[in-house]
Specification:
Elements lengths: L5 H7 L3 H15 L2 E3 L2 E3 L4 H72 L4 H22 L7 H12 L5 H28 L6 H30 L4 H20 L5 H13 L4 H12 L7 H100 L2 H8 L7 E13 L2 H6 L3 H19 L5 E6 L2 E6 L9 H17 L2 E2 L2 E5 L2 E15 L5 E5 L1 H11 L6 E3 L1 H10 L2 E5 L3 E3 L3 E3 L2 E6 L7 H8 L4 H6 L3
Parallel strand pairs: 8-10
Antiparallel strand pairs: 1-2, 3-5, 3-8, 4-5, 6-7, 8-9, 10-14, 11-14, 12-13
Helix pairs in contact: 2-11, 3-4, 3-6, 3-7, 3-11, 6-7, 7-8, 7-11, 9-11, 14-15, 14-18
Membrane topology: Single-pass type I membrane protein
Protein name: guanylate cyclase
Pfam family, one: NIT
Length: about 625
Amino acid sequence: MTPLTNTDIQHQTPSRHSASSECTIEGSATVALKVGCFRVDPSSTTGKRFYLFQMIILPFIPIAALIVQNCCTMVSVALANRDAMAINKQIKLTAEVVELLTTLQFERGQVAYYIFTDGNRTSLNSIFKETNEKISLCWGNWNEVFKGDKHFQRHMDHFRQNLTRSDDSALREMNWYNIANEYVLDQLSEIIRETSVSGVWRFLIAYKNIICAVENFSIATVYGLYYFGRGQLGLESFSMFVRYDSLAQDYLTATQHFSLVIYEEYQRFQANIPLFENITVRRLEIYSNEPRKSDFHIAEEYHATVSLFLAELRRYQEKIHSLISEKMYWDMNHASHQQAVAIVILVMVLTISPVIIFFVRNATQTIQTFAGTLITRTLELKCEKRKSDRLLFQMLPPPVVKQLKQQRQVPAESFESVTIYFSDIVCFTELSAVSSPMQIVTMLNTLYRLFDFRIQKYDVYKVETIGDAYMVVSGLPQRNGNRHSGEIATMSLDLLHGVRHFVIPHRPGEKLQIRIGINTGPCVAGVVGTTMPRYCLFGDTINTASRMESTGEAMRIHISQKTKDSLDLLGGYHIQCREPMEVKGKGMMNTYWLLGKEDSFISSCEEDFIHIEKAPDFLQIIGQD
């Protein structure tokens, strides 16, 4: 057999540094994680920053989305509020236009009353003055064609100065008011068209219809006054009366179709129409257009009744305007409320967001700290587990340890052929008598460390040490064929060589001597005990090996016949026959001395003593923490 080299011995000998390195390397490997396309170590500074950034970004995404959503909502609400205010301004402007239109309608009615009845010119002057004031007050606010009222005012003054009561020119002169009011209605239509995108467009259309109805009723009234003041309408004038009266009825009827609220108001207006039955009678008379005498009294009565009817229409018109104003007021309040809510939510989000991010950051750092501590504890636990495993491997064979760790029952196993080694110290009792217990322990510890180091080079298993007895076996628990006798024989020669150079620590002048006995044969091995389980060997082979040791001589290797036969098969060993001797319990036996081995390599004792100065393996394992 070729002994292992010094390099092999060093590889088989664990050290404190190597064990610690293994723990550190494995601990580092356990925390290396793959995240997506990147490899990130959460325990590293970069990994911690990466995960902290990730944890901050995750809640920030919905927060940012909420901020953007609220900003968009606030902008849309602000635009809606601005539009509502602009529409409200347009509606106020519409009210001013309607006031001017009403003033012109009233002036037209009074002028018609003056022309077609014997009215007083003085009363007209006060009406003209009131109309001029109204034009000066509101014309420039809405008229985009004429930047002032001067041009329109000149036309009005020229018309008023040329008023006549002749039948030929009267109706033609009254057409000026129709043109002026038509222009005002066009301006009103433009204002309503600009607000048609709002939620009040139905109300505005109904409002325009009632204004047109009032205008057409006012024009029809002029022809009615002409009929009762002059006695008959010409064909053209009659057709104009029918046209304007029909338009007025159509516009009035159309107002009820745009809103349920307006329809209810229209029903209330219709309920008051029976009060104006006289108008219906006079309308039928005008539609008949039969020649009659001029009757200023009837004309005055007709004018007064129509004025009341138009006043009722204007109250209906004002009610629709009030509905529009209420709707716009509600829209502006709703828009302002939504804007305030959006601002409050935005402020809350902007205020709470840093707090959320702060808590997320603290929670992440706490988790990272805990994870770091957990990693450290896990690594320490693995190192301790490795230490305990190595200690367990020092006590039991590795295959047995693996079965025990798997919580499996370890059955006793029979081996057909193994070689047993026994040795003890010569005169150990006398040496113990003259030495202190601590000196004996130190000596045995030094000797066994020498043995333990040397046997690592061979395929053997150290069974146990009891006092000065040292027991080794080869061929179990791992079977090695017929090599077991050669492994034990070479190991025995190596140990004997080492003992020759061993110096007793507390008695340097004395040499230590040992007896060695070897036997080959079958045996049974198994784990015995539960509190402190031991791997024990049973069988006559063990007893014979013990007898070989006890009947041997100092510094000699005593082997049995079976061992000698096994070594002969291997060859290369020097063996000397010993005289047959009586062995207790065995009778006469042929035994032999193992003297040496051909081409044997024995490591130097200086190298052995360098290694035995180191702490034992189990102390190295315990001291690694």
